[in-house]
Specification:
By secondary structure, the chain is α+β, with helices and mostly antiparallel strands. It has a five-stranded antiparallel β-sheet, with helices on one face. The longest helix is centred in the middle third of the chain and has 19 residues.
């Protein structure tokens, strides 16, 4: 599936230690990036995007910090698209469909945040995808939202 992210003219990258303060820093950076790219605070995608970034960063901090001492948030944007990814170096790749439907293995602990991310993405008409690193030892969860 090609999302056309390569064609988006705006970029910003944030790398932070995989610790609790990363959530606040990522949210604040998301707000700043959107404002700099001309997306007003009252735009209907802003609050959901802030929540989604916070949930994805929280998941990386909770579940990947042991193998990934830092995490990266990548932002890409254009006139009608806002995309972001949270990347860590933990090999587990969550199944986004399973998170949303509540299916899959395990007790389901920790899937609530990811389910929220998927649900909000779909409500906004966006897309979500997990992309593995080339070496299979990390991944990025990409969210693409229409503006």
């Amino acid at each position: 599936m090609s999302t056309g992210l390569e064609a988006l003219p705006y970029r910003h990258v944030l790398t932070v230690p995989a610790m609790g303060s990363a959530v606040r820093i990522a949210r604040e950076t998301t707000e700043q990036v959107l404002a700099e790219w001309g997306v007003g605070r009252r735009h209907p995608c802003v609050d959901p995007a802030l929540l989604m970034v916070a949930e994805l960063v929280t998941n990386s901090v909770r579940h990947a910090a042991e193998l990934s001492p830092s995490l990266t948030v990548v932002f890409a944007g254009g006139p009608d698209t806002f995309a972001f990814a949270v990347h860590d170096r933990h090999p587990h790749q969550p199944a986004l469909h399973d998170a949303f439907t509540g299916t899959g293995t395990g007790s389901g602990t920790g899937s609530g945040g990811l389910a929220t991310v998927v649900e909000l993405t779909l409500q906004l008409g966006g897309s979500a995808v997990v992309r593995a690193d080339a070496d299979g030892r990390g991944k990025s969860i990409w969210i693409t939202l229409p503006l």
